[in-house]
């Protein structure tokens, strides 16, 4: 396998889970907040016109809609319910809010001291993204004359707030998102009769859809602006315009005489145009001697290379290890010193020279010997090993009830750099939309793949074992750039929380702030698309329910509004929330215990 320092656009990144950075506010969920993915409705199948429930064919507000309305107080507590008088007084004390602000500032300063100032910029960028998401909901709601009562950054206790007109604006202590509260997003929410015409539920289909998709639309606009700026300021590498910028020590490439700045144009007689084509040819030719033609200083140079291989040996227990080629091209071992294989005598860095008494000299021969024994029902293998001092030893390793290897893949040992091409502002516009389409397809496909049962189970299993997913290179023997490509391959179908996204952004910033523009564009695309998943409580849930109601209205042809049955919607919403909270917590744990590395 080869490694890739700067991939072509659109690069493949792990999926990003919004549950970990959810902006759903508990009070908003009860009182009808439009938030980052919040679907809060309390609607039934009764025919409602202008706020009246006509279960019996009569008109006018019934007792449910008009008899027990809860007025909005000037200073509600943080759950959205009326706070007792003494509690409201406590909330209003300046020193309480100053102490909260001091704690927040202290935590931010501690984060900057612990992780460095770059991460504060990434955190600020994420907060700005979430702010604009909610601003989209806010602006569209106000344009439709819906009554908005709150626009808050953060959750939990208030630090400060002020009221202008109907809206209370403010900052809360937990900077994990933001929310906008719009009245009447749920039929069970009681509002004053005079406000009923300004509720979300009483507005037309297109007004409600405008509010629902406004958050994601803002993300898409930000993504286009950021990527366009990146194309103009930094440039973008085209797949055909690349060169080698890193060579792994002791790799096949180094032994063949590859130099920094070379570009492979032919591999084993096949023409090569892009990095991906070269990498795939290397992966598919393990333990083979091939001729490689590189372009060096504008001239072709032919080199002979011996491609090495990498693969895992594993069973039904944890006694697994990886076989790779060392600096001399011999099949060596990378093993966790705490597992059973190491305790049985398989030492890290030792060279395998025999399997079950049969001499071997390459990775493919080792794989063939193990799989042949496994086909005969064996679950234990005897390895003959030679250490750095030349001492020979044997290790009998049990692999549980069965053993196998994955398919050996070739390893060449080079990293690429795409030569960036800058665009004029005018030329960057169509290029940005081209990128937008490619990333949309890639992100939708990535989310779909993650939620496939097998991939979801692999994610859960990885969380509980904290063991790295099988890849074709160990971190213990790779150079930095090689490790980057291997880790990205291993994490390509991983769900990443907002914690992981911030950490990844910090790593990208270390290579230059120009790359951060591209990363933030990708992050905006991921958040925008994720929020449009057509399930409650995501924004896409609003679209789905609203469209269902509209279709029922058109089929009925009597001009009356149709309201979906909230009693049927609520269990689905609660189920989705529980699943996403679980995935979010697992993603946060994995991002802390086994963070994505590039």
Task: Describe what this molecule looks like in 3D.
This protein has helices at 26-31, 63-66, 85-92, 94-115, 117-143, 205-233, 252-256, 275-283, 340-343, 363-375, 425-450, 453-465, 480-490, 498-510, 513-531, 539-556, 566-593; strands at 3-4, 15-16, 33-35, 48-49, 52-53, 148-164, 167-182, 236-247, 263-267, 270-271, 288-296, 299-315, 321-325, 331-334, 351-355, 358-359, 380-386, 392-398, 403-405, 409-411, 414-421, 495-496. The chain has 598 residues and is an alpha+beta fold. It has a domain at 238-421: Pdz3 Domain (Roll), CATH 2.30.42. Strands 9, 10, 11, 12, 13, 14, 19 and 20 form an 8-stranded antiparallel beta sheet that branches. A 4-stranded antiparallel beta sheet has the order 16-15-17-18, covered by helices on one side. Strands 1-21-8 form a 3-stranded mixed beta sheet. The longest helix is centred in the middle third of the chain and has 29 residues, at 205-233. The two termini are 16 Å apart.
Radius of gyration computed on alpha carbons:
29 Å
Give the class from helix and strand content and strand pairing: alpha+beta
Low-confidence parts lasting 5 or more residues at pLDDT below 50?
1-91, 467-489
What's the total number of strands?
Answer: 22
Q: In the CATH scheme, what's the topology name of the domain at 238-421?
A: Pdz3 Domain
Question: Can you tell me the CATH class of the domain at 238-421?
Answer: Mainly Beta
**Mean pLDDT across all amino acids:** 78
Q: Tell me the overall shape.
A: elongated
The helix fraction, in percent, is 40-55%
Instruction: Return the CATH architecture of the domain at 238-421.
Output: Roll
Corresponding CATH superfamily of the domain at 238-421: PDZ domain
Strand content: 15-25%
Distance between the termini: 16 Å
Largest sheet: 8 strands, antiparallel
Our count of helices gives 17
């Amino acid at each position: 396998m080869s490694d890739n320092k700067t991939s072509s656009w659109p690069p493949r990144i792990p999926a990003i889970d919004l549950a970990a950075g959810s902006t759903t506010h508990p009070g908003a969920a009860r009182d009808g907040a439009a938030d980052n993915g919040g679907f809060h409705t309390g609607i039934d199948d009764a025919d409602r016109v202008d706020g009246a429930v006509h279960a019996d064919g009569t008109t006018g507000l019934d007792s449910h809609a008009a008899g027990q309305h809860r007025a909005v107080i000037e200073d509600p507590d943080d759950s959205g319910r009326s706070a007792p008088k003494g509690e409201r007084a406590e909330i209003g004390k300046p020193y309480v809010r100053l102490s909260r602000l001091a704690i927040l500032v202290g935590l931010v300063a501690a984060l900057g001291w612990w992780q460095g100032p770059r991460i504060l910029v990434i955190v600020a960028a994420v907060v700005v993204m979430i702010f604009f998401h909610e601003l989209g909901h806010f602006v569209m709601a106000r344009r439709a004359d819906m009554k908005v009562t709150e626009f808050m950054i953060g959750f939990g206790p208030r630090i400060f707030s002020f009221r202008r007109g109907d809206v209370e604006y403010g900052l809360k202590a937990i900077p994990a998102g933001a929310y906008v509260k719009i009245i009447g997003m749920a039929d069970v929410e009681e509002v004053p009769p005079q406000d009923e015409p300004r509720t979300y539920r009483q507005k037309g289909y297109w007004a409600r859809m405008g509010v629902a998709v406004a958050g994601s639309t803002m993300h898409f606009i930000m993504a286009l602006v950021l990527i366009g700026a990146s194309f103009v300021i930094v440039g973008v590498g085209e797949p055909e315009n690349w060169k080698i910028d890193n060579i792994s020590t002791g790799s096949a490439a180094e032994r063949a005489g590859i130099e920094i700045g070379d570009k492979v144009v032919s591999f084993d007689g096949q023409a090569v145009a892009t990095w991906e084509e070269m990498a795939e040819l290397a992966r598919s030719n393990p333990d083979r001697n091939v001729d490689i033609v590189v372009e060096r200083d504008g001239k072709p140079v032919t080199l002979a290379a011996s491609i090495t291989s990498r693969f895992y040996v594993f069973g039904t227990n944890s006694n697994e290890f990886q076989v790779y080629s060392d600096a001399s091209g011999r099949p060596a071992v990378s093993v966790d010193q705490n597992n059973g294989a190491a305790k049985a005598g398989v030492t890290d860095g030792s060279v395998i020279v025999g399997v079950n008494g049969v001499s071997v000299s390459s990775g493919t021969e080792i794989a063939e010997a193990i799989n042949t024994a496994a086909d005969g029902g064996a679950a234990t293998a005897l390895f003959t090993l030679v250490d750095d001092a030349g001492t020979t030893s044997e290790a009998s390793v049990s692999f549980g009830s069965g053993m196998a290897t994955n398919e050996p893949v070739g390893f060449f040992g080079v990293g690429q750099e795409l030569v960036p091409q800058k665009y004029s502002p005018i030329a960057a516009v169509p290029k940005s939309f081209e990128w937008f389409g490619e990333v949309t397809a890639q992100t939708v496909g990535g989310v779909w793949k993650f939620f496939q049962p097998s991939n979801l189970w692999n994610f859960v299993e990885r969380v509980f074992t904290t063991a790295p997913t099988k890849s074709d290179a160990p971190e213990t023997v790779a150079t930095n750039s090689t490790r980057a490509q291997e880790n990205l391959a291993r994490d390509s179908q991983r769900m990443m929380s907002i914690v992981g996204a911030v950490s990844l952004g910090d790593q990208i910033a270390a290579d230059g702030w120009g790359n951060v523009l591209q990363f933030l564009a990708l992050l905006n695309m991921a958040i925008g698309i994720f929020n449009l998943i057509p399930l409650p409580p995501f924004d896409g849930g609003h679209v789905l329910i609203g469209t269902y109601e509209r279709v029922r209205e058109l089929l009925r042809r009597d001009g009356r509004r149709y309201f979906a049955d909230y009693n049927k919607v609520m269990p689905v919403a609660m189920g989705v929330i529980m699943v996403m909270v679980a995935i979010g917590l697992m993603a946060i744990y994995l991002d802390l215990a086994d963070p994505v590395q590039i």
